[in-house]
Amino acid sequence: MKDKVCLITGATSGIGKEVAIALAKLDSTIIFTSRNQQKGEMVRNEIITLSNNEKVDFIICDLSSFNSIKEFCETFRKNYNRLDFLVNCAGTSGFKRRLSMDGIENTFAVNHLAPFLLTNLLSDIIKSSAPARIITVSADMHKYGTIDFNDLEKKSSYSILKSYSQSKLANILFTKQLSHILKDTKVTANCLLPGQAITNLIKDGNPAFYLLLRFVKSLNLKRLSIERAAQTPVYLATSPDVENITGECFKKKKIIKTSKESYNMDIAKRLWEVSTEYVKEYLK
C-alpha cells in the first residue's frame, strides 16, 4: 500500500475514520472529505498520531452540495495526479424529510447522488491509475428498499426506512452498473454491508436514539463496533484476493447475495440515466 493514494469520504467519524486510520497505518497517502476546516484539522492530526504517517490530508467538501463536490474534485486534481482507491463511505439519514443544498431529498442526495457525481468526476484519474479500486458502503437495510422512479425523493410518503433503504439499494445498483462500464479498464467496483455498527448516521429526530447512543458510548463499545465494521472495506482496498473481482457485494470479507432487485440491471441502467440527469450540469 506504500505510495498508493486513497480518497475516503465520510472519514471524520465512524467507519470512514477507522478505514482512514487503517490505511494510513499501511503507509498510504490518505485524503478525506470534511465539511468543516476545524474538524478536518482535528481528525487529520488524530489519524497522523494513531498511524505515525504524515501523508494525511483533507479537502473541504459538503456532500449535500453538487457545487462543493465539483470544487472538491478540482482541488484534488490540482494536488494529486493519481487515485488508487476511492472509498465512498459517507452517509446520512433523518427522521424528518430534509433537502440538500440543491433542493433534493437529502438522504438520496448524500447517500447516492454524491458518490455518483464524485466517482464520475474522478473516473478518468482513477482509470489512469489502474489497477485501481472503487469501494462503496451500502447497508443491510437495502433489502427493505425499492427504487421508486415515480417518487425517488419521497415527496408523497417520506419515512426514514423508505428513504434510507432506497439509497442503500441504489449504492448496490450503482456499483453493478459502474463495474459494467469499467469492465475493460482494470478498475474494479465493489460494495459492502458493514453490519449494524453504531455511528453518527442519524442527524435529527428521536431523543431516545441519542440516549441509547450515549449509553453505548459510556460502555466504550462504539469504537470496537466500528473497528469491526471497518474490516471489510479495508479488506476490499488491500487484499490481493479481490484483485480481479468486480460488481460484487461483500459482508465479513465474503461475497454475499443481496436483494432480488439489486440484481436487476435494467433498474441499474435506468437509475444511472436518471442520476446523470440530476447532476448533468456538474459533469461538464
Write up this protein.
The structure is a single chain. By secondary structure, the protein is α/β, with parallel strands linked by helices. The protein has a single domain (5-282), classed as Rossmann fold, CATH 3.40.50.720. The protein has helices spanning 14-25, 37-51, 66-79, 106-121, 123-128, 160-181, 207-218, 222-238, 265-279, and strands at 5-8, 29-34, 56-60, 85-88, 132-137, 187-192, 249-251, 254-255. An 8-stranded mixed β-sheet has the order 3-2-1-4-5-6-7-8, sandwiched between helices. The longest helix is centred in the middle third of the chain and has 22 residues, at 160-181. It is globular, with a radius of gyration of 18 Å. The mean pLDDT is 92.
Summarize this entry quickly:
The chain is of the alpha/beta class and 284 residues long. The protein has helices at 14-25, 37-51, 66-79, 106-121, 123-128, 160-181, 207-218, 222-238, 265-279, and strands at 5-8, 29-34, 56-60, 85-88, 132-137, 187-192, 249-251, 254-255. The radius of gyration is 18 Å and the shape is globular.
